[in-house]
Amino acid sequence: MEFDCAAALLIVRTKRDEEVEIRADNVRSEVFGDTVPWRRFRWYRGQKHYSGSYWSTTESGHVVYESLLELSRLLLADFDPAVRQIRAQPCLIRARVNGKIRRHIPDYWLLTRDGPVLVAVKPAALVTDPNVAFTLSWVSEVAQRLGWGFEVASEPPAAVLENVRFLAGFRRVEWIDSAVLESLRGINLDGLRFGTVAAGVDAPEPLVRTGLLHLLWTDELVTELAEVLSANSVLHTRVGSA
C-alpha cells in the first residue's frame, strides 16, 4: 500500500460549525473537546437506517448513532468502566492512499484508561469485503500513527447485548431509591444469587431489584453476562466494594 500516513489529515467540526484540519503528527486527544459529530443527523420518514440519540452516563448527555449496530457498540462503551469519554463521528480522516484521496468517518472515538481507541462499526458480513477491508486497513495505520487503538466492532454476543441493554434501563442514579442503595452497599453480596437478596433488605422487593440492577450497571457488582440475567445469577463484588 502506497501511503504517507504522517500526511493524513483529521478534520473536526467545532460547535461553532467551523472545520479544523490537523495533520496526523500534530493530533492530541484534546482536539475533540469542542467538537460535534461530523455528519449532521437527520431523521425522516422512510429512512433506511435506524438512527437516534442515547443518553450516556459516561458523557452525562446524549450521544448519536446511525444504526442499531452502532447503538449496540455505544451501549457497551457506556457500560464499560474503562471508558471515560465517547465521541460519535469525531472527525473526517482524509489521506492519499495508492495515489487517490480517500476519506473515512470513524463511528466512535473512545478515551479509555489505556488510551484512545478509534472504532469502526461494521457488520461481520461486510468486514471481508475487499473495499471495506482496504479502508479499514489504511484507517488502522492512521490510528497506529496517532498512538491510538483501532477496533472493528461487529455484532456482539446476543446474551451480552440483551443484558447490557436491560441494565441500561437502570443506569440513571436519580431514578433509584437512595436508601435502598445505601442498604445494599452495607451488605456483603458476594456469592449471593440475585433472587435471594431482597429477603435481607427492609424495602419493597421491586426497589431492591432496581438497586441491584443499578449496581450491576455501575460495576459495583458483577455477574456472568454471557447468560441472560435471572434470579439465579450469582453476584460478586468488586475489590473495594461493600
Outline:
The protein is an alpha+beta fold and 242 residues long.
Report on the structure:
The chain is built from six helices and 13 strands. It is an alpha+beta fold and 242 residues long. The strands form four sheets. Strands 1, 2, 3, 7 and 8 form a five-stranded antiparallel sheet that branches. A four-stranded mixed sheet has the order 6-9-10-11, sandwiched between helices. A two-stranded antiparallel ribbon has the order 4-5. Helix 1 crosses helix 4 and helix 5 (178-185) crosses helix 6 (205-217). It starts with 8 loop residues before the first strand and ends in a 5-residue tail after the last strand. The relative contact order is 0.12.
- What is the structural class? alpha+beta
The rough form would be described as: elongated
Helix content: 25-40%
Average per-residue pLDDT, rounded, comes to 92
Distance between the termini: 54 Å
Question: Major beta sheet, specifics?
Answer: 5 strands, antiparallel
Show unreliable segments: none
Number of helices: 6
- The beta-strand count equals 13
Oligomer: single chain
Relative strand content:
25-35%
Give helix and strand order, one letter per element, not per position.
EEEEEHEEEEEHHEHHHEE
Radius of gyration: 21 Å
